[in-house]
């Protein structure tokens, strides 16, 4: 790990777009469903989206001045569904930030397959200009595929069924040079064959970057409710809650909902993803992230290195020095405050030195980066570190500690064991 984490000038900006066409059943992000299909609902949606863009402009002015932001090395439009803004509103947002972007700034736009039509693809391919040649230089697109299997996307309650492979090829054909895919594994019903098909589809498309997260079934989501209902139905039927034939209609019926994969199946799947992507030349540079050479996500790397960043938009989080704050999640409340010339309501937090040390180590562990032991001595148990080193899960070298490639497979567990627990140890 190089440079001083947490402190220094803000060079990274996140903009949260809290709108989606529909809510996916597994989602617990700050996002609201918006009917953009036209008519009266479409007009109301357009009004909300315009108010949102105005709000971002006002919040950027306030935050830029308050934190003396002069240059941005990375800008990340995440959500929600940023591509729902369509090129016209995305342009309005980019216009705000262009004067502050460094010549080689990384600008990422999370994109859903159903938005990636020809108009969108050609905007994405030419939205920036190369400082050296004046030639068009695209934004970095992160395409939310989740799975190439329509049946598995149905299990996730992802009702928009645009083909992610087709959307990806359209982006490439338009000239988007830096395009990544977001996927999920551990989906109920995702057996070894379906996972193999997803891996094969990824390798065929050869994206510059792959984020492949394990499904986290969060309490309170529609997916958690459906899974609980399917377990209940399976118990009543004396079965085990599995269906043999997965199809996109059966998946939405709780009685036919496939069971969530057991821990060992998830672990095997994860090892397979890491193995096959690494074999195909991808750098496994974070627990869930893979990149072709030179294509690491610089914005995410800044987070993982605990660099200061600002977040704009409803529900966005900012961390600068020892201060962290989270914006109000309601887009109407957030926009109303900004249009009245006030800061949006926020939940502030002060990070004490122990929390900062713990976060720093957690983030470094996910990326296998080396950390000086002196900086994390307050939270890392050095006796445990010695035994984990003997097991090959961490490496201790010249007063530093690093989670090894072997340890990265179980990074969360390694951190739990390493962290001192004052409650348990007195
Ligand atoms: S598109 Fe993404 S943010 Fe929107 S509901 Fe689905 S998972 Fe959540």
- Architecture of the largest domain, according to CATH? Alpha-Beta Horseshoe
DSSP helix fraction: 40-55%
Number of strands: 19
Count of discrete domains? 2
Structure overview:
It is globular, with a radius of gyration of 22 Å. With 426 residues, the chain is α/β, with parallel strands linked by helices. A hairpin with a 2-residue loop joins strand 18 (394-397) and strand 19 (400-403). It has helices spanning 39-66, 86-97, 118-126, 150-155, 164-174, 192-205, 222-237, 263-279, 298-304, 331-339, 353-367, 373-376, 382-390, 405-408, 411-418, 422-425, and strands spanning 12-17, 19-20, 32-33, 72-79, 101-111, 128-129, 136-137, 140-146, 179-185, 209-214, 283-286, 289-291, 310-312, 317-320, 323-327, 346-350, 371-372, 394-397, 400-403. The chain folds into 2 domains: 12-217 and 260-304, pyruvate-formate lyase- activating enzyme (Alpha-Beta Horseshoe); 361-426, Arc Repressor Mutant, subunit A (Orthogonal Bundle), CATH 1.10.10.920. Helix content is 41%, strand content 20%. Iron/sulfur cluster (SF4) binds at residues 20, 23-24, 27, 29, 31, 79-81, 112. Iron/sulfur cluster binds next to loops.
């Amino acid at each position: 790990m190089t440079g001083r984490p947490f402190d220094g000038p803000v060079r990274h900006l996140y903009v949260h777009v809290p709108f989606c066409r529909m809510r996916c059943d597994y989602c617990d992000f700050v996002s609201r469903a918006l009917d953009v299909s036209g008519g009266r609902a479409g007009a109301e949606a357009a009004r909300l989206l315009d108010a949102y863009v105005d709000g971002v402009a006002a919040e950027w002015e306030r935050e830029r001045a308050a934190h003396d932001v002069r240059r941005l090395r990375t800008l990340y439009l995440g959500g929600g569904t940023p591509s729902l803004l369509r090129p016209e509103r995305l342009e309005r947002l980019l216009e705000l930030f262009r004067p502050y972007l460094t010549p080689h700034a990384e600008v990422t736009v999370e994109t859903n397959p159903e938005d990636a039509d020809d108009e969108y693809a050609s905007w994405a391919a030419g939205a920036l200009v190369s400082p050296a040649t004046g030639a068009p230089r695209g934004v970095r697109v992160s395409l939310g595929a989740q799975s190439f299997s329509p049946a598995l996307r149905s299990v996730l309650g992802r009702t928009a069924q645009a083909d992610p492979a087709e959307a990806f090829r359209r982006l490439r054909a338009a000239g988007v040079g830096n395009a990544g895919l977001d996927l999920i594994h551990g989906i109920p019903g995702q057996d070894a064959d379906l996972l193999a098909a997803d891996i094969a589809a990824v390798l065929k498309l050869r994206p510059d970057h792959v984020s492949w997260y394990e499904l986290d079934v969060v309490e309170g989501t529609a997916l958690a409710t459906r899974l609980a209902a399917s377990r209940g139905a399976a118990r009543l039927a004396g079965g085990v809650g599995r269906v043999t034939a997965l199809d996109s209609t059966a998946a939405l019926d709780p009685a036919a909902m496939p069971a969530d994969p057991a821990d060992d199946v998830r672990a095997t799947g994860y090892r397979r993803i890491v193995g096959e992507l690494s074999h195909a030349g991808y750098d496994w540079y974070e627990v869930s992230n893979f990149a072709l050479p030179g294509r690491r996500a610089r914005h995410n790397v800044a987070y993982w290195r605990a660099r200061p960043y600002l977040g704009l938009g409803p529900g966005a989080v900012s961390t600068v020095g020892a201060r962290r704050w989270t914006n109000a999640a309601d887009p109407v409340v957030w926009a109303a405050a900004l249009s009245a010339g006030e800061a949006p309501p926020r939940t502030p937090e002060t990070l004490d030195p122990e929390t900062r040390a713990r976060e720093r180590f957690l983030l470094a562990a996910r990326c296998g980066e080396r950390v000086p032991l002196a900086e994390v001595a307050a939270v890392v148990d050095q006796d445990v570190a010695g035994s984990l080193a003997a097991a090959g899960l961490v490496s201790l070298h010249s007063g530093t500690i690093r989670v090894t490639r072997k340890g990265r497979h179980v990074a969360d567990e390694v951190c739990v064991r390493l962290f001192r627990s004052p409650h348990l140890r007195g």
